[in-house]
Amino acid sequence: MRLEHRLGAVLAVAAIVLSGTMLPEVRAQDWQYVSPNYKQVAPNAATLSSAGTIKHIVVIFQENVSFDHYFATYPVAQNLPRESTFMARPGTPSVNGLTLDLIAFNPNSTKPFRLGRSQAATCDQDHDYTPEQMAFDFGLMDKFPQSVGTGGPGCPDYGKGKGLVMGYFDGSTTTALWNYAQNYAISDNFYDTTFGPSTPGHLNLISGQTHGFTNDSGDPTATINNTVIGDPQPTGDVCDSRDNVTALAGGKNVGDLLNLKELTWGWFAGGFDLAIKNPNGTTGCARTHTSVVFTTPKTDYIPHHEPFQYYASTRNLKHLRPSSVAKIGQTDAANHQYDVNDFFAAASAGHLPAVSFLKPPGYQDGHAGYSSPLDEQTFVVNTINFLQTLPEYASMAIFITWDDSDGWYDHQMGPILSHSVSPVDALSGPGMCGTAPVGSVQGRCGYGPRLPLVVISPFAKVNFVDHTTTDFTSILRFIEDTFGLGRIGGGSFDVRANSLNNMFDFSNPNPWKLLLDPLSGMVM
Questions:
Q1: Which of 453, 436, 454 is nearest to 445 (CA)?
Q2: What confidence category does residue 21 fall into, taking pLDDT thresholds of 50, 70 and 90?
Q3: Closest residue by Cα to residue 67 from 474, 444, 414, 371
Q4: How are strands ordered across the β-sheet holding 213-215?
Q5: Residue 67: partners with Cβ closer than 8 Å, 6 or more residues away
Q6: Contact call for residues 505 and 46 (beta carbons, < 8 A)
């Protein structure tokens, strides 16, 4: 589809956004080139329920990647010298990625371009709530370099300056993720629940809610009208270093629902155990590691990446330790908040919780500016290799996704299901994200950017691309439905979330286990 046709279709969608009409689905074929393999697939009777089949859920929550940044040309990789090799299996479905037309006639000031394996270290892009909406520009997706682009000096931009934001990797760098996609299921229609950086993404994952927080610092960039739009840290965490917020009394998250059912669960964060001394001598809140591609150490524990710390019912502000390995996942002084090392200790001892959220130490979380695709590949592959050795893997579902897009270019706009009119909105004009009803909650404009989602499970469909429109709260819903938890309530977006069940076939488990090399990402 030529650019002029695409723009006309996008403007039609923008008109709907401006009118305030809710969009239950944005079909990519309506306003974006789609390959012949792209189709909406309805769940069949064999895929409808995870309840009773899935007994362990693991969510690996990485940092700051748009779908196009990692999967733009899937399943075609260039395989240049001194890079890992990826060759797609026959019959591999294509994704709603970057076409030759969209690269050649891209409306942005810099065309999309490939980043090679030797360019894994990049500048961190702008991914704040307002600039991201400005980059989307009524759905034209044409203002990324000037709105969210960041370049050097001081960070590697490879001569692209702010145009770096248009860069993408292929399977020669994101090799492990592409190999997982070959053998399990991915989505090319999964979105950040709202616009904005890390903290809103984390809160949406566990509660479907960014509203109902007190701003204890007065920082205007942290919240608007008690809605979190920035990256404030949780009030009272002993490792806090800046502005803080707290959930209002009565605010709930999925941990509360799991506790009511007396199910084991935990958030496992790199660096949470303050008693450990790292090989470089650092300890406490100052524990650090250094990326394989960056030379600056990064703290392991990042407070605003620990969402349960914002809630009185689930926080462990002093980082108290579990009473024993056997108690990990149960309620004690640790209150379900642990170090990532505790996850491996518990699982190795036969105490894998029913629900586990994994957050690697900072240097392995994939966040541009201090981590990279190669650093996160090491963590992800080692974790998946370990999980596939456990007897519990036979009834396990593993989700890998990222908390926000970092501002990286993605060509596909999702439906705007939550409108907002406030000073910080800018999607459809100054102060506007559609037309929010009077009295409605502001600062929750979304869906935000499109993100990757990878599902690994014996029940995951093999070499499958799902096109169902989903978001963070779809993972939340999967947890709720699997264990019969009910919904969170209080305005949580879990009530509107589409199901992820189309990525599974619960009637036909696949015993195959895929072991990859953590450095190359290739099959061992």
A1: 436
A2: very low
A3: 414
A4: 213-215, 244-247, 233-234
A5: 97, 188, 190, 410, 412, 450, 451, 452
A6: yes
Q: Residue 136's closest CA among 2, 18, 14, 36?
A: 14
Structure tokens at 290: 């250094």
Cα→Cα distances 198→100, 113, 320, Å:
32, 25, 24
On whether the CB atoms of residues 309 and 318 are closer than 8 A, the answer is: no
Closest CA to 39 of 47, 48, 29, 26: 29
458-496 b/e (C-beta count within 10 Å ≥ 16 → b): bbbbebbbbbbbbbbbbbbbbbbbbbebebbeebbbbee
- pTM beyond cutoff 0.90: yes
Residue type, 161: G
pLDDT at 427 over 50: yes
DSSP string, 291-360: -SS--S-EES--GGG-GGGGSTTT--TT-PPPS-GGGTTSSSTTTTEEEHHHHHHHHHTT---SEEEEE-
Separation CA 145–CA 108 (nearest Å)? 7
Q: Please name the helix (run of DSSP H) or strand (run of DSSP E) that holds residue 202, with its range, or none.
A: helix 198-207
Residue 422 has pLDDT above 70, yes or no: yes
Pairing of strands 185-191, 450-456: antiparallel
Q: What is the largest CA-CA distance in the chain?
A: 63
What confidence category does residue 57 fall into, taking pLDDT thresholds of 50, 70 and 90?
very high
Give long-range contacts, CB 8 A cutoff, 24+ apart: 312-317. 312/246, 312/247, 312/249, 313/252, 313/253, 313/255, 313/256, 313/259, 314/253, 314/255, 314/256, 315/234, 315/236, 315/237, 317/234, 317/236, 317/237, 317/238
User: At residue 414, what is the residue type?
Assistant: G
**The dihedral formed by the CA atoms of 244, 254, 194 and 17, expressed in degrees to the nearest 10:** -140
For residue 478, the surrounding DSSP H or E stretch is helix 472-482
Hey, which bits of 36-145 come out as E strands? 56-62, 113-114
Residues in the chain: 524
Q: What was the pLDDT predicted at 522?
A: 97
Cα separation, 73 vs 67, whole angstroms: 10
Alpha helices (H) in 110-174, listed in sequence order: 129-136, 144-148
Q: Which phi and psi (to 5°) does residue 493 adopt? A: -75, 0
At residue 210, the 3 state secondary structure works out as: coil
Q: Cis (ω within 30 of 0) for the bond into 447?
A: yes
* Domains of the chain, start order: 3-503 (3.40.720.10)
Count of other CB atoms within 10 angstroms of residue 330: 19
Burial 242-280 (b: 16+ CB within 10 A, else e): ebbbbbeeebbbbbbbbbeeebbbbbbbbbbbbeeeeee
